[in-house]
Amino acid sequence: MEMYALVTGRPGVGKTTLVRRVVEKLRKEGYTMAGFFCPEVRQSGRRIGFRITSLDGSLEAWLAKIEGCNGPRVGRYNTCQEAEEVARRAVEHIDDVDLIVIDEIGPMELRLRGIREVILRVLRSGKPGLFVVHERLSDREILPILQRRGRWYRVTVENRDRLVDDVYSFVKSLVKRY
Ligand SMILES: Nc1ncnc2c1ncn2[C@@H]1O[C@H](COP(=O)(O)OP(=O)(O)OP(=O)(O)O)[C@@H](O)[C@H]1O
After folding, report:
1. Which of 5, 23, 170, 172 is deepest in the core (most CB within 10 A)?
2. Which residues take part in binding ATP (predicted)?
3. Which atom of ligand 1 is nearest the CA belonging to 13?
């Protein structure tokens, strides 16, 4: 049974923008949501790391940085343990919301054990979800669950505006069903 809208696509194509637009539309209609975003941080045009923020913006921390954190390394970045607490707290009221939103489920997020556990808890909760999924996700436990229960939306420059309504309608149908 489908219960997740899975947004994927090339880096920088507009996945986060699409999810934010869908979340905004749902919020205006009174739907309640929990989850987190993982925005990149640039300094003088150069990407120096990623933050993690709760969906409502009230919690935030570093997720990964080139310099300054000492969690497991992913490419050029060291992950930051402080991110685990934000992820945990961002979904602590999971039973009280209509929808879980996670941007994104990728190698960096899953490298932190606390975030991996949060994502598994979300997947076990029975709540519908709107997730950005890294196009090269290969996690042997999480990817099969997503594939079994998700409908994929591959974002391109051509379809990214049109997809907002498609994803929005699908997510609404999921919330009604669960
Ligand atoms: N529908 C759109 N119309 C115009 N510009 C857009 C649109 N969607 C995204 N953009 C622009 O493209 C850039 C990248 O968008 P966004 O961060 O949403 O991409 P992403 O796929 O989430 O990136 P990443 O792979 O880094 O997570 C931003 O500057 C954003 O303003």
Report:
1. 5
2. 9-16, 99-106
3. 21
